[in-house]
């Protein structure tokens, strides 16, 4: 038995394309290496109880026919069926794959290649056990020379994605945690690689194709490339081997060549130098020029034994702690996005078509970098990123912790096998991806400080130092980085210990979620970055994650009206409000802070797409993290997508936000337009509303304040003047007669669209000055504020209208046509421990006191009991002023209705 847990990266390009695309046979012009995809006619069964012996003996009868890529999680964890907080957990367990295939001859040299199997794979060929690979994301190979039959062959694979409970479980490898799903199966391709001789470019060296190329020196006149090639030679007579290297431009001309004799050894390395005159550099998205690097292995008769051919970009990166990133000597600020590899209703079983579509959206938005989170992605993702000019952050799947919770509870040390496997996954990642010009850094971890202590002991930073040293040994030319979450975390406790990770890697980045997981807007965000920059002045700093959830069916009238949090809607279903407009507010605020800090080498939005996460039940879809700028199925670009496209792309953009908020609650609203036009004109039902020049639109955001909608249909049209071209965007909103005449407002609530039992549509909190909007039931790092259950509020018919309060010293300035109105105010005491007299306040209307010395507990008889007060007012100047002035404690308001008489 030969156990070789290794993976492929650098095989012939044609072979890669054949494996991804389903073609078979040798590459054109390459008679040395033959790659045969094994993607069709597989049989599959998901069976946690089946034994190895029973599976080896089975003939596949009753198993399901499948085609690779395949995962048994494609329809249970990330599907349109998962649309509520009661979504079921996705299936984790064992799956069995069986393939019968024919070979007419037994090749001189043959390897089975698996591009990815999650999490652990055991492989048998013709009943003989080949070995095991542990790790879900890197490819691996088994040497099957002499094991293939001339005729029928049977390949059997057991794949296990079971949740690891203890350190000795087979699947207890990185990642041990993470806010993403671990789909199970043969979710990438499988192929058979054959060469005509037992001497070949290394197929057994951690999956790399045996060729590693670097740009050693670079100037406009000349570039020097170092090409290292590994050769494996199992021949009896190890003599007469020569390596030939050539760099070929896009016109097919050889611009540099070299050759070297290979030392006679079972495992040999030779180094060649290529000098390139007037090099055409790979300059990111501005000019992603790619040569072709070809390395041949020939014998003493000149016969071609093996060939590796790859795209290659000549480039050099430099990171500076004060000035950021330089690519080939030119400053380059990375405007990046994070993305996972899954897709709605496909999970991880995606191919080039899905990868290309995802990266095309990245480029459409104007991003110039991608963080492929939180693990190595498919080889095609790196190839396509190179072709598009995207700078790539490549990441090791070391996420959240180095011990299972059970092992930490038992006081067990980090298992040596876990550390050895972590080393192996790092070697596989680096060696398989080494030659990609887009990869600027190796990330060794994500948020590991979150679970970085066990019984007070540091279980993370020694591991990080070990990984940093190994990464520098594998690739001295690229910097290491990591994504930190805990350092200077604003809420410190047992769950989030302060465990500094800055200073360990060459460069550094932080995940910060101001305005989402903890309070503080753009100013607080910027101040945190400045503290990090001052604390580690010699270490270049980036931002690896920031963002906010955005549910398409959740909308808001004012993103400052309340807090995103959990509340009981209708007394039954727990919902985390994630208004699309609030996400836009977060991105606008945070991006403003980022844009002002030139020392940052790059920033990465979390995330480009919604993705599967079985631990999340929030927003308007279960089992999904909704922070994507684009929906899980890639069908809908959310409003923040257009904010970045307007700021990052040279393509003309004019886009009206809030388009999915079609049934409007208020007659008066602000209209926001994301545009990079010289001027933007806004029209409503054909009437000119106003014009904004680019200078009036900071961060390409044009605001038309206090637009008065018409009763009925409102067609808003934005015309962006982009030089000689005009871009027109339209939305259609409806204002019902009831809302055109009256105002219904849910105080303290950020989400709009509540409809009372009497049929009135309530808007979210708006038109306020001062105070704070807070849900009664709040489940977020802001901490509990009140703790009253909405289900216990009197008048259960409209429980949702009592789900939050505005509290403090506050007022409202509500635009209204002149006339006479009745004002109805809803109050309850949100503090369940409150006593009479603890909270007293008055309500003024137009400067006149209408409710004096209101004590809600005394009036209602108990906390959490709804009461209502009403009075009539005359509006004469186009707005109604309401003021809530405390005498003891804070003033509070649950809802209000203003109806014309």
Descriptive notes:
This protein is mainly β and 901 residues long. It has 12 helices and 58 strands. The strands form 14 sheets. The protein has an 8-stranded parallel beta sheet with strand order 33-32-31-28-27-26-25-36. A 6-stranded antiparallel beta sheet has the order 4-3-5-10-7-8. Helix 8 runs parallel beside helix 9 (580-595). The radius of gyration is 31 Å and the shape is elongated. The N and C termini lie far apart (89 Å). The model is unreliable at 1-30, 77-83, 566-574 and 778-785 (pLDDT under 50).
SSE map:
Elements: H1 13-21, E1 25-26, E2 34-37, E3 42-46, H2 52-57, E4 64-66, E5 94-103, E6 109-114, E7 120-125, E8 128-134, E9 140-143, E10 151-160, E11 190-195, E12 199-201, E13 211-218, E14 222-233, E15 242-248, E16 254-261, E17 267-277, E18 282-283, E19 287-288, E20 291-298, E21 304-312, E22 317-320, E23 324-327, E24 330-331, E25 334-339, H3 352-365, E26 369-372, H4 379-388, E27 391-395, H5 405-410, H6 416-433, E28 439-446, E29 453-454, E30 457-458, H7 461-474, E31 480-484, E32 508-511, H8 522-535, E33 541-545, E34 566-569, E35 573-576, H9 580-595, E36 602-605, E37 611-618, E38 621-625, H10 639-648, E39 654-656, E40 663-664, E41 668-675, E42 679-684, E43 687-693, E44 701-708, E45 712-722, E46 725-735, H11 737-741, E47 743-746, E48 754-755, E49 761-764, E50 768-775, E51 804-815, E52 819-827, E53 840-845, E54 848-854, H12 856-860, E55 867-875, E56 879-888, E57 891-893, E58 895-900
């Amino acid at each position: 038995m030969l156990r070789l847990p290794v993976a492929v990266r650098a095989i012939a390009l044609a072979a890669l394309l054949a494996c991804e695309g389903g073609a078979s046979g040798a590459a054109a012009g390459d008679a040395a290496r033959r790659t045969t995809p094994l993607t069709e006619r597989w049989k599959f069964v998901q069976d946690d109880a089946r034994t190895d012996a029973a599976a080896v003996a089975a003939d596949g009868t009753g198993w399901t026919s499948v085609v690779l890529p395949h995962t048994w999680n494609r329809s249970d964890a990330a599907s349109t069926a998962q649309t509520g907080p009661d979504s079921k957990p996705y299936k984790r367990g064992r799956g069995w794959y069986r393939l019968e295939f024919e070979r007419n001859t037994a090749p001189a040299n043959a390897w089975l290649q698996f591009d990815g199997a999650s999490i652990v794979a055991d492989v048998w060929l013709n009943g003989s056990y080949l070995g095991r690979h542990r790790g879900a994301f890197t490819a691996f190979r088994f040497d099957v020379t002499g094991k293939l039959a001339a005729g029928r062959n049977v390949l059997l694979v057991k794949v296990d994605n079971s949740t690891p409970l203890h350190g000795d479980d087979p699947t207890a490898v990185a990642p041990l945690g993470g806010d993403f799903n671990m789909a199970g199966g043969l979710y990438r391709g499988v192929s058979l690689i054959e060469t005509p001789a037992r001497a070949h470019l290394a197929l057994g060296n951690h999956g790399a194709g045996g060729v590693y190329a670097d740009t050693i020196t670079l100037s406009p006149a000349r570039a020097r490339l170092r090409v290292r090639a590994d050769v494996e030679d199992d021949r009896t007579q190890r003599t007469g081997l020569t390596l030939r290297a050539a760099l070929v431009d896009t016109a097919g001309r050889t611009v540099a060549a070299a050759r070297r004799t290979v030392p006679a050894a079972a495992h040999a390395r030779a180094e060649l130098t290529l000098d390139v005159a007037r090099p055409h550099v790979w300059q990111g998205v501005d000019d992603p020029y790619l040569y072709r690097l070809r390395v041949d292995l020939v014998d003493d008769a000149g016969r071609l034994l093996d060939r590796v051919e790859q795209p290659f970009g000549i480039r050099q990166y430099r990171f500076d702690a004060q000035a950021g990133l330089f690519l080939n000597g030119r400053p380059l600020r990375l405007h990046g996005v994070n993305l996972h590899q899954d897709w709605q209703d496909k999970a991880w079983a995606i191919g080039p078509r899905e990868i290309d579509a995802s990266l095309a959206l990245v480029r459409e938005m104007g991003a110039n970098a991608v963080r492929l989170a939180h693990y190595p992605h498919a080889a095609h993702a790196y190839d396509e990123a190179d072709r598009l000019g995207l700078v790539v952050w490549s990441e090791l799947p070391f996420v959240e912790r180095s011990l299972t919770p059970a092992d930490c509870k038992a006081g067990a040390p980090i298992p040596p096998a876990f550390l050895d496997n972590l080393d192996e996954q790092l070697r596989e990642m680096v060696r398989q991806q080494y030659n990609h010009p887009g990869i600027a850094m190796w990330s060794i971890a994500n948020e590991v400080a979150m679970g970085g202590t066990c019984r007070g002991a540091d279980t993370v930073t020694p591991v990080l130092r070990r990984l940093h040293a190994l990464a520098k040994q594998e690739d001295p030319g690229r910097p290491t980085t990591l994504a930190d979450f805990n350092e200077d975390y604003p809420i410190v406790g047992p769950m989030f210990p302060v465990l500094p990770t800055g200073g360990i890697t060459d460069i550094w980045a932080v995940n910060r979620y101001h305005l989402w997981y903890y309070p503080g807007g753009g100013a607080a965000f910027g101040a945190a970055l400045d503290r990090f920059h001052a604390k580690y002045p010699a270490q270049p700093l980036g931002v690896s994650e920031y963002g906010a959830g955005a549910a398409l069916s959740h909308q808001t009238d004012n993103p400052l009206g309340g807090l995103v949090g959990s509340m009981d809607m209708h007394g039954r279903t727990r919902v985390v409000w994630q208004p699309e407009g609030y996400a836009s507010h977060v991105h606008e605020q945070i991006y403003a802070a980022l844009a002002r800090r030139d020392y940052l080498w790059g920033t990465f939005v979390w995330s480009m797409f919604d993705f599967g996460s079985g631990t999340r039940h929030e927003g308007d879809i279960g089992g999904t993290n909704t922070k994507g700028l684009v929906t899980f199925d890639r069908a809908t670009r959310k409003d923040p997508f257009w904010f970045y496209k307007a700021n990052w792309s040279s393509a003309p953009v004019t886009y009206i936000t809030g388009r999915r908020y079609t049934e409007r609650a208020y007659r008066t609203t602000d209209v926001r337009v994301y545009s990079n036009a010289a001027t933007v004109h806004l029209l409503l039902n054909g009437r000119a509303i106003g014009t904004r020049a680019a200078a009036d639109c900071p961060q390409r955001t044009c605001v038309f304040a206090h637009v008065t909608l018409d009763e009925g249909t409102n067609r808003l049209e934005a015309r962006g003047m982009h030089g000689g071209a005009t871009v027109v965007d339209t939305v259609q909103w409806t204002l019902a007669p009831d809302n055109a005449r009256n105002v219904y407002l849910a105080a303290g609530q950020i989400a709009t669209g509540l409809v009372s039992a009497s049929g009135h549509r309530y808007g979210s909190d708006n038109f306020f000055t001062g105070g704070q909007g807070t849900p009664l039931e709040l489940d977020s790092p802001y901490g509990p504020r009140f703790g009253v259950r909405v289900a216990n509020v009197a008048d259960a018919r409209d429980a949702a209208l009592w789900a939050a309060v505005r509290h403090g010293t506050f007022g409202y300035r509500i635009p209204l046509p002149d006339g006479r109105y009745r004002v109805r105010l809803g109050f309850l005491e949100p503090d369940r421990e409150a006593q009479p007299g603890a909270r007293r306040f008055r309500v003024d209307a137009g400067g006149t006191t209408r409710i004096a010395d209101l004590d809600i507990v005394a009036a209602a008889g108990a906390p959490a009991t709804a009461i209502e007060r009403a009075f009539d007012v005359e509006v004469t100047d186009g707005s109604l002023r309401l003021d809530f002035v405390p005498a003891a404690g804070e003033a509070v308001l649950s809802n209000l209705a203003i109806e014309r008489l």
